[in-house]
C-alpha cells in the first residue's frame, strides 16, 4: 500500500508539472489564441497545490481533485471547438487532467485514517 501511495504522489507531481509546462508552452509559444495573448496565465494557478503535493498533505490532494476539473473542462471544450494542433494540445490537457484526478483520488483514498 505504501508503494501505491508513493506512486500516486509521484504521478500527481509529474502530472501537475507536465500540465503546467503544456499550458505555458501552448499559450505562449505553440499555438497562442492570438499574438500577445496572456492566456498563458492559466498555468499559474497550477502552482498553488505544489507545496502541499510535495509535502504529501492529504487535504491538498482532496481539493486538487476538484480544482483540476477546470482544466479538464477547458480541454474538452477546446478539443471540441478548435481544429488542427489546438485540438491535439487540448486532448493532451484532458488526458493530463484525468491523470492528475485519478492520482489524487488514489492518494486521498489510501491515506485515509481508519475509522474506529
Query: Quick one: biggest sheet?
Result: none
Q: For the record, give the distance between the C-alpha atoms at the N and C termini, rounded to a whole number.
A: 20 Å
Counting structural domains, the number is 1
Please work out how many helical segments DSSP would assign. 5
Determine the strand fraction and express it as a percent band: under 5%
> What structural class do helix, strand and pairing data support?
mainly alpha
Low-confidence stretches: none
Report Rg: 15 Å
**Order of secondary-structure elements:** HHHHH
Helical content (DSSP H or I, runs of 4+): over 70%
**How many beta-strand segments?**
0
Shape, per Cα inertia axes? elongated
Mean pLDDT: 93
Organism: Chitinimonas arctica
Transmembrane segments: 12-31, 61-80, 86-108
Protein name: DUF2069 domain-containing protein
Keywords: Membrane, Transmembrane, Transmembrane helix
Architecture overview:
The protein has five helices and no strands. By secondary structure, it is mostly helical. The protein has one domain. Helix 3 (58-67) runs antiparallel to helix 5 and helix 4 packs antiparallel against helix 5 (85-110). The mean pLDDT is 93.
Question: Which terms summarize this structure?
Answer:
116 residues; mainly alpha
SSE arrangement:
Blueprint: H1 2-30, H2 50-55, H3 58-67, H4 69-81, H5 85-110
InterPro entries: DUF2069_membrane
Pfam family, one: DUF2069
Keywords: Membrane, Transmembrane, Transmembrane helix
What's this model, at a glance?
With 116 residues, the chain is an all-alpha fold. Helix content is 72%, strand content 0%.
